[in-house]
Amino acid sequence: MRFPNLLPVVLFAALFSNCGDGTPTRQSNPRSRTIRPPQRAIAGDVVPVPSAKPARPFRPSRSPNAVPNLWPKDLRVNTLVSNHGVGTAGEPGIAAVADGTGGAFVLWEDSGVGVIRTQRLDMTGNALWSTGVVSTSPAYQASPSAVSDGSGGVLVAWIDGRNGGCDSISQLNCALSAQHLDGSGAKLWGDDGVAISSRAAYPAANRFAMIADNTGGAYLAWSSGQDTYRCCSIYMQHVTGDGRTLWVSNGIRIGELPTVITGPGVTGPRLIPDGEGGAIVVWWNQQFADGTWVMTAQRIDAVGHAAWGDDVTLPFPAPGHSNFDAISDGAGGVILGVQLNDVPGSHATHLYLQRISAGGQPLWGGQGALASSQVGEQTSPALVADQQGGAFVAWSLYDQNAESNNRVGIAHLSRTGNALWPTEVIVTATSAGQLAPRLASDGNGGVIVGWDDCRSAGASDCASTYDLYTQHLDREGRRVWNEEGFPVATAKNNQGVDYGAEKRPGFEMIPDGAGGILFLWPDGRDRPCSAASAASCDLYMQRVSP
């Protein structure tokens, strides 16, 4: 990369009662609420680590066209000779969690030997651990997900093949396992971790969700065919900070009916904290009987009860679409962003947003709120809360003829679902080739966006030339960094990978809690790589700060 005049900077409860079959008991509710829009070598050396400090916001520059800072160079994270590449076929193959001191815990799937590797970096990018692993089991491990334990450590979950029938080729009999690492990298749940579900069946096909419970443990949700010959239903488990699973073995089943969500092109369930020690789970429910697609949500309390009684269902026009995102509204509810094919007979899709209250009531009308009326295929929805009850939503306006023509747009909606900017904002003034955005709040009413970028590509080689770019929009929607976006990583070949037709982001982007944003990505600068050739990928990180 070539960035003149850039200075190096400092980086960064009880047991629940349930039905005998594991289905959560349901509190009274007269009827479901329906709206109808039109629409993963031993853990390394122990080193002293600083105490966690309160996270601070991004602290954006107020100068127009300001240039943010980067580390002197991109940091390669997987440095062992034995590392065989960052796994991406078992998406996601990477995970990053802020450590509370400006650094990060980093986890990745070493696709050459099928293990989840671990590292901790301080705020300047120095490695604090010898690279470790989450489990000494020889079984296949893939698709790490991680959350903070709130005490300077990290909880990690992954797809596990110790039962057999789960490897890099077939993932039809996978289990889910988890581990707790303290700030020095020591394994707190034994060498092999604990089982979340020993028969999760299909979790790798649709991924799984994990959030902290804010008491040192975590909630997990996944799709599974474990109780039916048809895939799948949604299951959940609550694990404590000392590694005890609080609910029935293999998790409780969420929802009354199985749902068709079997392909890797379908977005897995989402989990959102409810602010009262429980979680809201959201998933697509496509029924066998008639093929209808129904966005479904349920609030599960800390002991496994379905707090909303019947599931909240939001049916959308057939044939629906699998891309969606969900975030907390800051008041115990959830905001959803859904990609819908609302123009019959065409490829055109639009993003609709809906807010569900803490009590389970949809708040943004029968139609939900339209993010943008842009004509085309609006895909890869990403949401982040605006800290005022509303949300920023980003998408890629997809050009099926040439990805190098794609543009990323952003809109800002209020807590009532009204647009706060006169129109959507495109993240660059003129350049195109933007895909798969991620968002982070700047803590001052604005938003940071990152995306895969192939502006230098021809019409047919976008994925092999991905770069990473970012942009800062202030509260009024004005571009703060270079009108054409700011380059985070522009080495040769690809920075980030292509996850196929759904165009999910091929990188991670998280606030570091010390005023910066961390980017983590599979990288092909030494040898081109892709989701289908994960053994060729390396893992790199960069920090952006004002």
List the helices and strands and how they pair.
Elements: E1 69-70, E2 75-76, E3 94-98, E4 104-110, E5 115-121, E6 132-133, E7 141-148, E8 154-160, E9 174-181, E10 194-201, H1 203-206, E11 208-212, E12 218-224, E13 233-239, E14 252-254, E15 270-273, E16 279-286, E17 293-300, E18 312-315, E19 324-328, E20 334-340, E21 350-356, E22 369-370, E23 377-385, E24 391-398, E25 407-413, E26 425-426, E27 434-441, E28 447-453, E29 467-473, E30 486-489, E31 508-511, E32 517-523, E33 538-545
Antiparallel strand pairs: 1-33, 2-33, 3-4, 4-5, 5-6, 7-8, 8-9, 9-10, 11-12, 12-13, 13-14, 15-16, 16-17, 17-18, 19-20, 20-21, 21-22, 23-24, 24-25, 25-26, 27-28, 28-29, 29-30, 31-32, 32-33
Please give a structural write-up.
The chain has 546 residues and is an all-beta fold. The protein has one domain (69-545): Methylamine Dehydrogenase, Chain H (7 Propeller), CATH 2.130.10.120. The chain is 1% helix and 36% strand. The chain has one helix and 33 strands. The strands form eight sheets. Strands 1, 2, 31, 32 and 33 form a five-stranded antiparallel sheet that branches. The protein has a four-stranded antiparallel sheet with strand order 3-4-5-6, with no helix packed on it.
Main attributes?
546 residues; mainly beta; Methylamine Dehydrogenase, Chain H; 5-stranded antiparallel sheet; 4-stranded antiparallel sheet; 33 strands; globular; disordered N terminus
